[in-house]
Write a structure and sequence with these properties.
about 260 residues; mainly beta; Porin; globular
């Protein structure tokens, strides 16, 4: 296993993807979660503020991301004291592969009443068997620790899971709380398959993540469910949590079609 998901190349904003980014279907392509997390890192690094928090981040996928060198840039679209919008772009091979748009909102600590989600979060299950035992080993699957609370990767229908990253995004850098969430969240449609992923492909074209608070524990999880219409458009919705409770939601917009 490599030391991190990405290695800086030395050029500003450029990173070499390691084998930890490889998804389950093609050894030449990254899973969506690591590049999404790299985009968030760019936003956090370029426009660091301790008086705001990301409330919503939307990712648009323009095409597959190769396991190769990628370049990331960030820009502030709408600066503001209370609300700001920042975008980041990831390119590979001279083309834009992904973009992220993040809304950050100024904190008003103690300024408004707390209206919390009172539901207790699931407990982290004890270690179990290999989650992806029916698939060839792939880097991204090994780079996170996975523990199913409900369902399984090869069981159709809703599922809930806890994850914990085994690697940093960049060697020597601790993961931020939001990065821990983003490293797992694009797997929502995979853990909650509504139809056979051996016979059908369901590819996220957009991912929308809303968080009321950042996770406070190392383990983060989600409860996900996928719905698909017969014309090939699907949605996966996920409720996000850590060991302390529920903290937000995520929605994936899916292209669904037969594998050829």
């Amino acid at each position: 296993m490599p030391a991190s998901f990405y290695r800086p190349t030395g050029a500003e904003g450029s990173f070499a993807a390691t084998s930890a980014t490889i998804g389950p279907w093609d050894t030449k392509l990254q899973h969506g979660s690591p590049p999404a997390t790299l985009l968030m890192r760019a936003i956090e690094k370029a426009y660091s503020r301790d008086d705001v928090r990301v409330a919503r981040v939307t990712f648009d996928f323009f095409g597959p991301v190769p396991v190769d060198e990628v370049h990331v840039t960030a820009e502030q679209v709408r600066p503001g004291a209370r609300v700001e919008l920042t975008r980041a772009r990831l390119s590979a091979g001279g083309r834009t592969a992904m973009e992220a748009s993040a809304w950050r909102i100024a904190l008003q600590r103690g300024g408004v009443p707390l209206v919390a989600d009172a539901r207790p979060a699931p407990r982290v299950p004890p270690p179990g068997g290999e989650v992806f035992e029916q698939l060839p080993s792939f880097g991204y699957g090994q780079a996170l620790e996975w523990r199913f609370v409900e369902g399984s990767f090869f069981e159709l229908g809703p599922a809930a899971i806890y994850t914990r990253a085994r690697l940093p995004l960049i060697e020597g850098e601790p993961l931020s709380p939001l990065q821990r969430v983003l490293l797992m969240v694009d797997s929502a449609n995979g853990i909650s398959s509504a139809i056979s992923f051996i016979e059908y492909t369901f590819v996220p074209v957009a991912l929308d993540v809303c968080v009321r608070r950042y996770p406070r524990t190392e383990w983060v999880g989600m409860r996900a469910e996928t719905r698909i219409e017969s014309d090939g458009i699907g949605h996966t919705t996920a409720e996000l949590f850590d060991e302390g409770g529920y903290l937000g939601t995520a929605t994936q917009t899916l292209f669904v079609g037969p594998r050829r």
